Amino acid sequence: MQDLIKIAVDAMGGDGSPKKIIDGLIYNHKKNKENFFRIFGKKEEIENNLGNQIDNNFFEIIDTNNKVESTDSPLEAAKRGKDTSMWLAIDSVKNKDSDIVISAGNTGALLVIAKLNLKMIENIDKPALSALWPNKKGMSVVLDLGANIECSSKNLVDFSIMGASVYKSLYPQENPKVALLNIGSEELKGNETIKETFQILNDKKSDNFTFAGYIEGNELMNGDVNVIVSDGFTGNVALKTAEGTANFIIDELKNVLSGSLLGKISSLLNISNLKKFKKRLDPRLYNGAIFIGLDTPVVKSHGGTDYLGFSNSLDVCNKIVKGNLIGKINENIK
């Protein structure tokens, strides 16, 4: 257990919990024996779903009767007390009993409870919500995705450093290119905060990333940059737009290929390519947003994902702990 990555799991958050969460743990354990799960939730329900499918040396259950509800406001969630599965899971990393914490529960509640319990990394003013996005050449890290509606140039510079550190943790062999999301590629475009951030990053010489200037919304999936930085308002709108567009394309393709005899024949003839296409846009493969800026990484799994999506977010936990994300941010922010 000493060499295992210790993941604190809020088993009661998200749709279909705890079954979906436990199924994700089981699936992940079958393909990866590097993780130890500290599972917080109703013990009887967890045991009923778990059975004997994970060796006893790879998990422990911490019985909790209370949980944060999906309908709770962040304030209501905090007031529920310190006996909820979410609070105790975060408490586990605060006390250094676990290396990282993950929840599929209420996003606002998770961010507030994490900020109440965990310290900020020195010289970081605001934490950010980051996630992986697919592009033509691989993956990009995008932040902030909604934790901060308004940001200063200092915040955006911090996000650039933290985003580059996330990318290096996940892909240690690559030197990331960082870009600011803007309404144009010219230096004079954008608001004063964006332009000021551009100048700071353009003048800043870093061994940890290369500043690639501005990137527009229609270039997000090109794969020319690895880290895309924005304020939380803009980033969240971009995320929801991308998700909606992907769902629209998949639904329309299904309608075309199933709406006529010719479409059905075409889909049968191209079934292999269609499976590749569907897999490329499958949101479960990119599940696992990272709340960074605190002295312990906090991972948010999508509440509506299934066991496979939750398992993939456990892979993210594994990689960023092994990649020493917090150490990289501490080193680079100086």
Assign an overall shape.
globular
Question: Which structural class matches the secondary elements?
Answer: alpha/beta
Which class of the largest domain in CATH terms? Alpha Beta
Note the run of SSEs as H and E.
Answer: EHEHEHHEHEEHEHEEHHHEEHH
- CATH architectural name of the largest domain: 3-Layer(aba) Sandwich
What is the assigned CATH homologous superfamily of the largest domain? Isopropylmalate Dehydrogenase
**Total count of strands:** 11
Helix percent reads 40-55%
- How much is the radius of gyration in Å? 21 Å
Proportion of residues in β-strands? 15-25%
Tally of discrete structural domains: 2
Biggest sheet architecture: 11 strands, mixed
Contiguous helical run count: 12
Low-confidence stretches: none
Q: And the CATH topology of the largest domain?
A: Isopropylmalate Dehydrogenase
Mean pLDDT: 87
Q: What strand order characterises the main sheet?
A: 3-2-1-4-11-10-5-6-9-7-8
What labels would you give this structure?
334 residues; alpha/beta; Isopropylmalate Dehydrogenase; 2 domains; 12 helices
Secondary structure: elements and pairs:
Blueprint: E1 5-10, H1 19-31, E2 35-41, H2 43-50, E3 59-63, H3 74-79, H4 85-94, E4 100-103, H5 107-117, E5 128-135, E6 138-143, H6 153-170, E7 177-181, H7 192-203, E8 210-215, E9 227-229, H8 232-258, H9 261-269, H10 271-280, E10 289-292, E11 298-300, H11 307-322, H12 325-333
Parallel strand pairs: 1-2, 1-4, 2-3, 4-11, 6-9, 7-8, 7-9
Antiparallel strand pairs: 5-6, 5-10, 10-11
